[in-house]
Structures are given as C-alpha cells and as structure tokens.
Amino acid sequence: MLNVQNLTFSYKKTPVLKDISFKVKAGENLSIIGESGSGKSTLLNLIYGEFDLNEGQIFWKDTEILGPKYNLVVGYDFMKYVHQEFDLMPYITVAENISKHLSRFQPEESKNRTNELLKVVELEAFASVKVKTLSGGQKQRVALARALAKQPEIILLDEPFSHIDNFKKQSLRRNVFKYLKDKNVTCIVATHDKEDVLGFADTMIVLENKHILEQGQPEQLYKNPKTPLIASFFSEFNIINEQIVYAHQLKVVENSDIEATVIYSYFKGNHYLIEADLNGKKLFFEHEKSIEKDLKVYLSTSE
Ligand code: ADP
Ligand code: MG
Asked: Measured from the CA of 158, which atom of ligand 1 is nearest?
C-alpha cells in the first residue's frame, strides 16, 4: 500500500535519511519515532511529496509520490498531512475551517460530517468560535478535524497531540485513532511520545543516525529493546551485566548480589521510582512505597 523503497535524502550535502525502506498496509497505524532532529518530519515531508528524493521511490498503491521537480502541485487528494505548525484560517469559525473543503453542493452531508468530526476532537462547544481566539491545543484539534474532513486514504500526523494538555490528551488519542481505524484510514504518526504509540500503533520504526535502527510491533520492541535508545523511549531502565533491565523489572529482595544505596524516591502515582547508587552508578527501580535515603537494599530482576 505505502511502499518506501531505499529512500535517501539530503537538504544540503550530507544526507538526513539514508537507505530507508518500509511498507505500511491499508488501514494500519505506523509510528515513526526518534530523537529530535532524527528526520521524522523530513520523512513525512517526503511521503507527502514536498521534496525530491536523492535516491529511492515512494508509492501509494500504484501511484508514485513525486517531488516538486515532477509534480507542480504538492500533495495528492488521497493524502492529508497535519504539520507540526498547523495553518488554519484565523478569521473564520472552527466549523467553517473544518468544512472548508467539503462540497457546497451537499450541505446536509457536509454539516453531518463536520459535526461528527467536532465530536471526535471534542470541540462541539466551539463550533462557532473564530479560530484566532483558540489556544494552541484547540487549534491543533481543529487542524486534525480539518485533515479528516475529506476522508483521506492516508493521513500523516506530525506530533499530533503535542500542544494538547494532559487533561484532554488521552481521550483525544483514543477518539482520533479509533476514528481512523473505523474508517480504515492508513495513518503515519511521527512522535517522541510513547503514549502516541502504545495501544495504537500496529508497527513502529525507530530512526537513528539517518537509518532505521529497528522496525516491528511495539510489543516486540518494548519486550526486547535492542539498544538503550529504544528502551529509553519506553521507560526508565538500567544496564546490568550488559543487559537492559527496566526499572519495573527490579524488585527489592532479602538478599542478592545487587546491593544499592537509596538516593531519592519519586512519587509516580501507583508506585515510587527509586533512584539508588550501585557502585558509583545510578540505578532506578520501582517500589510501592518510598524508601528512606541512604538505606541499603538488595535487588533482583524479575519478569
Ligand atoms: P525531527 O522531526 O525528527 O525532529 P527533522 O526532520 O525536522 O527531525 O530534521 C532532521 C534534520 O534535518 C535536522 O538535522 C534538521 O536540522 C535538518 N533540517 C530540517 N529541515 C530542514 C530544512 N528545511 N533545510 C535544511 N535542513 C533541515
Ligand atoms: Mg519534527
């Protein structure tokens, strides 16, 4: 469906992305993760056809995605892209922004779709408010709804919930990703937030140093992180005997050969994250209670 083959791209002389290949099936949700500057937005731009590739090809079904050199008007009808900086029309209302590109000849249908989307992004109460008066997070939600309005076959989302506050984030993610699944819209999400990935992505790609470091199901990558970078995306972790051990995999026991000294207990809601010293190096584990500073504890790994 989406087929990215041996893509290499550079803005100037040195490549930003090198030999990138992956496929996404119709209706799937793919997450692209990586540190800031790793090329996530660039990759979305390329899939959208904003730049010409140095090498490689991108196909959506049988259509080759071409850059500006071969395609005068950037973008395709079957694809929508919600950029990190969403540009809306500030002087018209939320509802008008969403319905702007819907057909004027089917006013009833256009109205129904707009209402449906206002519900998805939880902005029903703001339908007739001018966009310029909205907060950053509210604008981001309008941008999402507008991109969904014409029901694309594939949607590219660049850090789609980054401006939205924590009170709304969780339910909004569920709404948006469920909507996309229900409508069988293929979805590619660039993010550095594991909450955008876990529970939603069918597959994920990790970008590092111009290349794809790993690709697979989130559960695979989480359970078997090949590198510290991947582990750090998911959770606090340690390296013990050259193995990656998540903080929650370490338990306090009566006796063991890992003896650490407690430095600090961070309240995390349903547990405490304990920072400790192990032979001069920091060690993190989870515990149901806080532990007094300087106390010595024995730890053991468990699944
Ligand atoms: P991410 O989205 O993962 O943070 P980007 O794709 O924005 O990463 O950037 C990848 C690299 O490309 C960075 O080194 C960035 O400085 C560079 N870059 C991004 N956009 C441009 C541009 N328009 N011109 C030149 N270099 C760019
Ligand atoms: Mg980016």
From this structure: 2
Burial 92-109 (b: 16+ CB within 10 A, else e): ebbbebbbeebeeeeeee
Q: What's the pTM?
A: 0.94
Question: Which numbered ligand comes closest to the C-alpha of 40?
Answer: 1
Q: Pull the structure tokens for residue 33.
A: 């993760």
196-225 tens-digit pLDDT:
999 999 999 999 999 999 999 999 999 999
Six-digit token string for 139: 């604008």
> Residues 8, 211: contact at Cβ < 8 Å?
no
Domains of the chain by residue range: 2-223, 235-301
Q: Which of 8, 9, 16, 84 to mutate to test the pocket of ligand 1 (most atoms within 8 A of CB)?
A: 16
Q: Which CATH class is domain 235-301?
A: mainly beta
Q: Mark 114-130 as b/e (b = at least 16 C-beta within 10 Å).
A: beebbebbbbeebeeee
- Ligand 1 atom nearest to 38, measured from its CA: 3
3 state SS of 138:
helix
Looking at the CA of residue 44, tell me the nearest atom of ligand 1.
6
191 Cβ inside 6 Å of ligand 1:
no
**Tens digit of each residue's pLDDT (9 = 90 or more) over 2-46:** 999 999 999 999 999 999 999 999 999 999 999 999 999 999 999
Alpha carbon of 32 to ligand 2 centroid (Å): 10
The domain 2-223: what is its CATH number? 3.40.50.300
Cβ neighbors of 39 (< 8 A, separation 6 or more) are: 16, 17, 207, 210
Query: 41 alpha carbon to ligand 2 midpoint, in Å?
Result: 4
Q: Which residues contact 73 (CB under 8 A, 6 or more apart)?
A: none
CA dist 208 and 97 (Å) reads 37
